[in-house]
């Protein structure tokens, strides 16, 4: 018993891991029905890894990303992110982790329609202590990095889907996150634009090999970028 707990302890303290999940379940209550979206999932994610999350519709990909992104908490099990247990953390700690350590990209881009590209990126830096001047400079740098130097003052409605997703990537990178989480980030893009977005993410990771990228996708071309492929089926890891 002691030996096992010591092994678990040393496993938990592995500094090369950004996430360690043990027996994670998520049950949604839908009226009088329970939906078991994740069932006792245990997995580790290494720092700096590029991970794809695949599986049929309803297999639990978005649910797992919500848990990794500290946007929701598991019904059972533990989720260790660096030194913090997300399942035990207070909502203030979770908010702080989301703002400082995690960046999100979504299928629908989720830009604020009334703000231009640069303002959409700047707004992500509001939760961190920073001057407006710093936010402006950083947003400009990031938009240049994603190839939108010429489009900074455009509203989202004046940008193509691929350009909007690049603004969203710049926004996700604003606070230098340790983990970039994407839920079908190329789901609304044609295959050429999708390849450009994936190339951008791949290059960002090459530049900063500390960043961990975790993407849920239905697209086999997207999962080709991944070093580690996690497959889900009915809320469980598929072997
Ligand atoms: N908020 C919720 N309330 C109730 N059930 C939910 C909720 N969110 C997800 N579910 C259910 O949990 C299961 C897993 O859903 P999830 O969205 O994680 O799947 P997914 O793999 O992301 O699917 P897709 O590829 O269609 O995006 C599904 O059966 C879904 O209907
Ligand atoms: Mg989903």
Summarize the structure.
With 239 residues, this protein is an alpha/beta fold. It has eight helices and ten strands. The chain has helices at 2-12, 61-68, 91-101, 117-122, 132-145, 161-173, 191-207, 220-223; strands spanning 17-30, 33-46, 50-54, 76-81, 84-85, 102-106, 179-183, 212-216, 228-233, 236-237.
CATH architecture field: 3-Layer(aba) Sandwich
Content-based structural category: alpha/beta
CATH class descriptor name = Alpha Beta
Give start-end ranges of low-pLDDT stretches: 1-12
Bound molecules: adenosine-5'-triphosphate, magnesium ion
Instruction: Return the domain count.
Output: 1
Mean pLDDT: 92
Ends distance: 28 Å
DSSP, total strands: 10
Report the radius of gyration as a whole number of Å.
Answer: 18 Å
User: What's the tally of helices?
Assistant: 8
Proportion in helices? 25-40%
Q: Strand count, sense and closure of the main sheet? A: 6 strands, mixed
What form results from the Cα inertia axes?
Answer: globular
CATH topology, what is it called? Rossmann fold
How would you describe this structure to a colleague?
The protein is of the alpha/beta class and 239 residues long. It has a single domain (46-73, 91-237), classed as Rossmann fold (3-Layer(aba) Sandwich), CATH 3.40.50.300. It is built from eight helices and ten strands. The chain has a six-stranded mixed β-sheet with strand order 6-7-8-3-9-10. It has a four-stranded antiparallel β-sheet with strand order 2-1-4-5, with helices on one face. Strand 1 (17-30) and strand 2 (33-46) form a beta hairpin. Helix 6 (161-173) runs parallel beside helix 7. It is globular. It starts with a helix and ends with a strand. Mean pLDDT is 92; it is low at 1-12. The structure holds adenosine-5'-triphosphate and magnesium ion. Magnesium ion is lined by residues 61-62, 183, 216.
């Amino acid at each position: 018993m002691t030996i096992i707990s010591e092994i678990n302890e040393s496993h938990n303290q592995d500094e090369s891991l950004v996430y360690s999940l043990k027996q994670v379940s998520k049950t949604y209550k839908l009226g009088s029905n329970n939906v078991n979206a994740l069932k006792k999932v245990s997995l580790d994610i290494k720092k700096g890894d590029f991970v794809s999350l695949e599986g049929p519709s309803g297999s639990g990909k978005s649910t797992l990303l919500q848990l990794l992104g500290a946007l929701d908490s598991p019904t059972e099990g533990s989720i260790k992110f660096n030194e913090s247990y997300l399942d035990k953390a207070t909502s203030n700690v979770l908010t702080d982790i989301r703002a400082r350590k995690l960046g999100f990209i979504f299928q629908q881009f989720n830009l604020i329609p009334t703000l231009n590209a640069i303002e959409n990126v700047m707004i992500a830096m509001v939760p961190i202590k920073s001057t407006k001047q710093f936010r402006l400079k950083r947003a400009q740098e990031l938009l240049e990095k994603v190839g939108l130097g010429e489009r900074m003052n455009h509203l989202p409605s004046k940008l193509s889907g691929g350009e909007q997703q690049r603004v969203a990537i710049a926004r996700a990178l604003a606070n230098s996150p340790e983990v970039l989480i994407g839920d079908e980030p190329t789901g609304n893009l044609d295959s050429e634009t999708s390849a450009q977005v994936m190339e951008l993410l791949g290059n960002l990771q090459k530049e900063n090999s500390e960043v961990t990228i975790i993407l849920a996708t239905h697209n086999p071309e997207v999962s080709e970028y991944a070093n580690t492929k996690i497959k889900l089926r009915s809320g469980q890891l598929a072997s």
